[in-house]
Amino acid sequence: MTIEQCRAARALLGWSTIELATAAKLGIATVKRFETGQQVQSLSVATMRASLDSAGIQFIDPGEVSRKAGAGVRLR
Q1: Which of 5, 30, 65, 66 is 20–30 Å from 72 (CA)?
Q2: Model's pTM, two decimal places?
Q3: Would the pLDDT of 70 be above 80?
């Protein structure tokens, strides 16, 4: 998950960084560090992505079939 995908996913859900942190059972500082490009553990990123996925976000990876073939997110 990229920083941009994380922010876009939160926007689609109407979630704040606090809501993502709560859903992922992570500290708010971890979410904020990730979204500002700072180093976080890969397990934390995977946990955030899984929480967003569980909330209805579908991740589109680069090269994956999509209209523009770019990385992104969408609601299922």
Answers
A1: 30
A2: 0.83
A3: no
